[in-house]
Amino acid sequence: MWEQRTSTSPEIRLVWRAFVEEAADYVDDASEHWGIAFIRRPDDSLAAELAGPRIEGRPIRSILGESYWGIELAAHVMIPGVDKTLLRGAIADLPVIDGRVVIGGHRYPIPTWEGLECFVTELLADGVLVADPDIRRALGGDDRGLSRRSWQRRFPLVTGLRRKEIERLDRARRAYLLLSAGMRPVDVAADVGYADQSHLTRELRRIRGETPARILAAAVG
Hints:
This protein has helices at residues 116-125, 133-139, 148-159, 163-180, 185-192, 197-208, 212-220, and strands at 2-5, 12-19, 25-28, 35-40, 46-51, 58-61, 67-73, 77-78, 91-94, 96-97, 100-103, 106-109, 130-131. By secondary structure, the protein is of the alpha+beta class. It has a 6-stranded antiparallel sheet, with helices on one face. A 3-stranded antiparallel sheet has the order 10-11-12, with no helix packed on it. Strands 3-6 form a two-stranded antiparallel sheet. The longest helix has 18 residues, at 163-180.
């Protein structure tokens, strides 16, 4: 079971939860977004994880009976003192002590699914999370105020990825949506700017772990 919702907070991309009804291996899509996830094991113990940005899909193994809930942070949000590039493509365990998660030297009660936005608001108020207004503006297409070289240095520092890598992820995301709507792969490749259909296939296999044919078949099936 999987459920997700958007958030009114500009610092949160989405809020999600899942319950494993059948153990399986799957590929977690590549993403420029940091994620914070909470896990309840079948024995009722709790765990927490911080997922770094990634340019390739990441294999994940789900365990029967586990439940998960968490958030994807906006790409312009960072934890001061934690280098996103060091977590690139990786997942780090966050300490959980007596039902509290330790982040940035602070302890917080593990939030419920309904309380995730309030949890992020508290992290921002405490300075455990920081939103970079310049990167947020640049991601929206406004490059004023800094030189090209300055942006090149700033993007990896804040997001953990180069700007061109974020653009690749965005292009693959747009391609996936068009394929899911039933558009032919050759037309999708031309529409979003891939060199050809083979280029589209390589990128989607690398970033999402799926081919255009498989995405299209799921859409029309």
